[in-house]
Amino acid sequence: MRPLHAAILAAVLVAVGSLILNALHAPWIASPLLVGVVILAVGVLPNRLDSI
Questions:
Q1: Which of 35, 49, 36, 37 is closest to 2 using CA atoms?
Q2: Averaged in consecutive runs of 10 residues, what is the pLDDT profile of the chain (52 residues)?
Q3: Transmembrane residues, as ranges (predicted)?
Q4: Which residue of 10, 41, 44, 45 lies most exposed, with the fewest beta carbons within 10 A?
Q5: Residue 27 φ/ψ, nearest 5 degrees
């Protein structure tokens, strides 16, 4: 996965996740945690897909 595609995917996932967290009235700490999880997932997922 190219870096630009990874950045776009991360931005979309963070935006969608933030909307979901707001709809669920999640505590404020959930948004930074979501960003961290998304960045880790986007960083690790392409490596996993390439090895398949």
A1: 49
A2: 76 82 79 79 69 56
A3: 28-46
A4: 44
A5: -65, 160
